[in-house]
Design a protein that fits this description.
By secondary structure, this protein is of the alpha/beta class. The chain contains 14 helices and 14 strands. The longest helix has 25 residues.
Length: 434
């Protein structure tokens, strides 16, 4: 072509959570390998069953002709009013339906958000990072993502001093991202952590972006504090959705809640720009928006959600029992979301370790994968784990982190399969590092 077509920032677009699937599919198709999927947070893939009463609500909604039409560009008005009412039951920020904006899932919301941020304006987020945020932010800035550290030696708590210093000495930073509960670590922010971050935002005239897609998934004694409860007078956006707690990931239905949008002219313009972008798109998916208040407003949903949290909490305890005493790992129990990030201790991994791969075709495929240039040591382990044991996890180095480890899920409904999968991981770590 007569000139380049692709932005330099496109090189930052990476999603190892999905990319590892290509390798796993190769093993299944060419080597007949059974795959234990631990790479992605899809409850449906992990044998979750949607309660019949939720299916009935959706079925009834499908019978309404309005579910086949356009919704309001910002989202179904009655649904936005319901969401605003639920937020206003909490202490803290109060919103109206005009402060709620729907997207085709949070992936769409995140991409749209970073698309319209000024390229020189940066959003600093946690590391290990969630790829959709870090890739989107880096691509919009044509640069590597900016991150503050979550500390595995301190139960994955954010390093507030690191965050403060980066904000203080980098005037391009305009916003702070938190993911609460966190993906990929499973950490839940305490009220004190959040207040410290809000204090930094207030001092340096920033806004806060809070991804709360897992807000209703906490367990084993943890509590989620939504941004609306601690934001005070600081501008903020909470990102929410129905893909994890209902769960209905295929609905592609997520929304943003804007707090204090009138308190800053630049922040209000961002809000107006995102609304305009949705108008150009016409609308987000109508059916799930119409079903949302009926499901979340049903008294049975709270009981159902409590059952989910108990199940995930038990899985966290089971995984902890299997992996916590491995001498080569830093292991932190999880208290929120569907994930655990497990880190190898410094000096544990090198580029000469291996696992025995029994299947000749699997060994052949692995040999090709290991030729990848500039491979990190944790990705090498992940490839060996996949080829030797069939367990598909994601390397933590792909989450914008200098740490070496891997992320797993807490989703498997089949308890025997869960124990089998994590026993395979334990065996692999012991053999690889021993």
């Amino acid at each position: 072509m007569r000139q380049a077509l692709v932005s330099p920032g496109a090189s930052e677009l990476s999603y190892e959570i999905r990319e590892i699937v290509i390798k796993a599919d190769q093993l299944a198709a060419e080597a007949g390998q059974t795959i234990y999927w631990e790479n992605i947070g899809d409850p449906i893939q992990k044998h979750w069953h949607i309660p019949q009463w939720i299916k009935d609500i959706i079925s009834e909604t499908v019978q309404d002709d309005k579910s086949y039409g356009y919704a309001h560009s910002m989202g179904q008005l009655s649904t936005r009013q319901f969401i605003a009412g639920e937020t206003n039951k909490l202490e803290g920020a109060k919103i109206t339906a005009q402060d709620v904006l729907f997207f085709n899932g949070l992936g769409d919301g995140i991409a749209t958000f970073y698309q319209f941020i000024e390229p020189t304006a940066r959003i600093i987020g946690p590391s290990p990072a969630y790829s959709t945020h870090s890739s989107g932010e880096a691509a919009h800035a044509n640069s590597e993502p900016l991150t503050y550290q979550l500390d595995p030696a301190n139960a994955w708590a954010p390093d507030i001093e690191d965050l403060y210093n980066q904000v203080q000495y980098n005037p391009s930073i305009v916003g702070i991202l938190i993911i609460n509960p966190d993906n990929p670590t499973g950490m839940v922010y305490t009220r004190d952590m959040l207040r410290q971050i809000v204090s930094i935002a207030r001092k340096f005239d920033l806004f806060i972006l809070s991804d709360e897609i897992y807000g209703s998934i906490t367990y084993n004694g943890a509590r989620h504090y939504p941004l609306s409860e601690v934001i005070g007078d600081v501008p903020g956006i909470a990102m929410k959705g129905m893909s994890k707690d209902m769960p209905w990931p295929g609905s592609r239905c997520g929304w943003m809640e804007f707090y204090n949008r009138g308190s800053d002219a630049h922040f209000h313009r961002l809000y107006q720009t995102l609304v305009s972008a949705k108008m150009l798109e016409v609308c987000s998916t109508t059916l799930p928006q119409m079903a949302l208040p009926k499901v979340y407003g049903d008294p049975r949903f709270k009981e159902y959600n409590e059952e989910i949290k108990v199940k995930i909490g038990r899985r966290s305890e089971q995984i902890t029992a299997i992996l916590q005493d491995i001498p080569y790992l830093y292991f932190n129990p999880t208290y929120g979301a569907f994930y655990n990030t497990i880190i190898f201790k410094p000096g544990t991994l090198n580029m000469s370790q291996s696992l025995k791969v029994e299947n000749p075709k699997s060994a052949e495929l692995l040999e090709g994968w290991l030729k990848e240039r500039n491979m990190k040591a944790d990705k090498r382990f992940v490839y060996y784990l996949l080829a030797a044991k069939g367990v598909c996890v994601v390397p933590i180095s792909s989450f914008c982190s200098d740490l070496l480890g891997f992320r797993v899920t807490l989703l498997e409904e089949d308890e025997e399969l869960l124990i089998e999968t994590f026993t395979k991981i334990k065996e692999a770590v012991m053999e690889y590092c021993g």
